[in-house]
Amino acid sequence: MPNLDGGNDGRDRDDDNPNPLAWLPDGFLERTADKGLAVAAWAPQVRVLSHPATAVFVSHCGWNSTLESVSAGVPMVAWPLYAEQRMNAVALVGSVGVALPLRPREADGVVARDEIAGAVKELMESAEKGRAVRRQAGDLQQAAARAWSPEGSSRRALEEVAATWKKATETMGSTEVYNRGSIGERLAPRPHVVLLASPGAGHLIPLAELARRLVDDHGFAATLVTFTDLSTAEALSGVPACVATAALPAVPLDDLLAGTSMETVLFELVHRSLPNLRAILRSVGAPLAALVPDFFCSAALPLAAELGVPGYVFVPSNLTTIALMRATVELHDGVPPGEYRDLPELLCLPGGVSLRRTDLPRSFQSSNEPVYAHLLEEGRRYRGADGILVNTFYELEPATVEEFKQAAGRGAFPPVFPVGPFVRPSTSSDEAAGASACIEWLDRQPTGSVVYVSFGSGGSLTVEQTAELAAGLEASGHRFLWVVRMPNLDGNDGHDHEDKQNPLAWLPAGFLERTADKGLAVAAWAPQVRVLSHPATAVFVSHCGWNSALESASAGVPIVAWPLYAEQRMNAVVLEGSVGVALRPRARERGEIAAVVKELMEGADKGRAVRRQAGDLQQAAARAWSPEGSSRRALEQVAATWKKVTLAEVK
């Protein structure tokens, strides 16, 4: 409703008319019907601002509205009305640079129509001031997203405050702490989710982040269960403090034949550990809300049914991985037990993903692979899950998400929930001297100038391939930060290296000296999340492990795809094809490596398109966990289901 303190405008309107639209100028709605929509009193502002169609926000500059606009990357026309809004407008127009002002007439304080039209046109069309404000709004959106990333300024600030509060709480007596809890906390313990991780950082890190979100955002208690046989203290060091951990006791595996594949060992380990897992589940004091095994641990799903709780599978990889498992299972529908069939030479999956057999993980390339039968059984058990939680987000694989929704609607597959990206937080090791050296070196480099090279915790190259990569980086002429691991020495190169335990000793002779002014090579490890989110980092030469792919997507860094093993070739196909944030060298030789790096760093055609798509995907990844984001809503839906089941059990 308009402010009528100044009296009616002379036109015949009922001052008590509750419809604000009745006060608009005569004929306005009719004249703008093809271009505009006017609504009375309210709109879902966060969703409107985050919608791709929204380009400019004419705003009163209230601080909540300002932050919503900033988080969506939408520039503003500043129209302050009262309280601190004029002060906010000065900052937004001046030091922040994401708004253009409106200047009221001195005579009556009214903002004239030409002033309004000029500011809107400037922001929507201008190639000068408007473009600068639009660019700054986009940069600030990325900064807002980084503020709550694992290395973000706001997250770290709140962590510092929380640590202070927890330390103060620890000094109190337990009775005092208990008495300060709410009645609800004293009478109704939080529902408990138990998550089962298969070994390996690539599985543990995202599952631990899921557990943290369930605790922090949804009020669950969470216990992350690992296997003593194959878990390391280093991997467990990244588990958030709010998540409890439990280790399954070691079980005998010495009856397995020498040379048994790691996958087969894992599946046997899971089966033999089920009695111990059952004991842990029965020992949970609070109401058990759900069991969430990793996708290699689906043999645990019957325990959920036995205990009468939901059983959801967690997939640390993408939806294409689940689509591959589903295709394998459907290929064997109606096939007699013990008979196995090869997948087709060209496998077409949802979302327009086409995989050659050589793109598949080795275990899927032939039905004669020893682990093929185990994987088929894993996939069949997925059909009995109550749901599948996947470490991806809607905007990354939209067509695949929609196809899985249709499959769930037909009852052909459990509902699938994209709830990522889960990006690992900072750990104590990130503050080590090596980490500081990397970040300090990056701080001295120009913005967008560095190629980051890393092949994950398990990736290694041959000595010959290492030499080709070194030559390619040098030939590209660009700055680089290279995490060098020990080479694969199945075949020695014949050179007499004095320090064979130092990865840098295996680099070509003179390489470090020739590139000292442009490159930094570090042995074995770097704080990857911090490196990727650093303003100097422009390109990531990566093995395409899914954790690394999501860390790169969250930082808006395009990828040179260099897959090595497991599902990485399949990931590379997805990242280059349907997602469009990667390029692959046609051959892994120095000239092609240099050409692909140059294309991503400098290219005006294909390289520019990939860089733009990486930036767009970064914004989509940030939106996925915004208040109205796709992943936040998906996990809210799952959490509500679990709480409803738990409440029914308590009653």
From TrEMBL:
A Gene Ontology molecular function term of the record: UDP-glycosyltransferase activity
Pfam families: UDPGT
Protein name in the entry: UDP-glycosyltransferases domain-containing protein
Annotated CDD domains: GT1_Gtf-like
Gene3D superfamilies linked to this entry: Glycogen Phosphorylase B
Region of interest (Disordered), ranges: 1-20
Keywords assigned by UniProt, alphabetized: Glycosyltransferase, Transferase
UniProt source species: Aegilops tauschii subsp. strangulata (Goatgrass)
Keyword Kinase applies: no
Similarity comment: family membership: Belongs to the UDP-glycosyltransferase family.
InterPro entries in UniProt: UDP_glucos_trans (IPR002213), UDP_glycos_trans_CS (IPR035595)
